[in-house]
Design goal:
The chain is of the alpha/beta class. It has helices at about 15-25, 35-40, 40-50, 65-75, 90-100, 115-125, 145-155, 175-180, 190, 195-210, and strands at about 5-10, 30, 55-65, 80-85, 105-110, 130-135, 160-165, 185. The termini are close together.
């Protein structure tokens, strides 16, 4: 089954909790986005964990160093998933994965801005991360889609689940779903909808129909 994650980036913490509550029956992972983490720190993780004890809470730390130490901070606060950048030193990524195992938690390798994507997908698939995410960055994205990177990842990944992010919405969800991701991350386009709950319902229906 394809799972869904919503990126709660540019909201206040109270607004993020409100949005998560609205979509709690349709979404499996609530992401405390990097901007929200920067504003609120581990308080955001603790509040979300208290409010949603049965959901996965992802802290989008995008770690570039000290993968074990920084991941533990998030796990201690109640996060069940933390992101580490695939562009970091491989030792940082490996340390994040090791810490996830120690803390009985999960880690997602974010391949945002990684050069030589094919080579690194092959390498990181051996590390034992729960998820590897292909991710088209917000800055400079324009009309770019993560679809081609997703197709490449699906050919390569054998051990880690394949996640995808980057401007995904109702306009392209059929193509994305047809490529077979394990995990879809939604953000700006979903939250731009007039009726967010109905938009999420339509997106889920499209994915389930593929």
């Amino acid at each position: 089954m394809t799972t869904f994650q919503i990126a709660l980036d540019t909201f206040s913490l109270d607004q993020a909790i409100e949005m998560a509550a609205m979509l709690a029956d349709q979404v499996q992972v609530f992401e405390i986005g990097t901007p929200l983490v920067l504003r609120e720190g581990t308080n955001a993780i603790r509040r979300m964990r208290e409010r949603f004890p049965k959901h996965d809470i992802l802290a989008d730390y995008k770690m570039m160093d000290a993968g074990d130490y920084e991941a533990h901070i998030a796990y201690e606060a109640g996060a069940s998933i933390v992101t580490v950048c695939g562009a970091a030193n491989p030792e940082t990524v490996q340390n994040a994965v090791k810490q996830a195992r120690k803390d009985k938690a999960k880690v997602m390798i974010d391949m945002i801005a990684v050069r030589g994507l094919e080579e690194w997908l092959e390498a990181y698939d051996e590390f034992g991360a729960d998820y590897i995410q292909v991710h088209t960055a917000f800055d400079g994205r324009g009309d770019k889609s993560p679809l081609e990177d997703l197709k490449l990842a699906k050919k390569i990944l054998k051990k880690s689940k394949c996640a995808v992010a980057g401007g995904i919405g109702l306009h392209d969800i059929k193509e994305i779903a047809a490529a077979g991701p394990d995990h879809i991350i939604l953000g700006s386009r979903l939250f731009a909808a007039e009726d967010i709950k109905e938009e999420m319902r339509k997106i889920a229906a499209e994915v389930n129909g593929v």
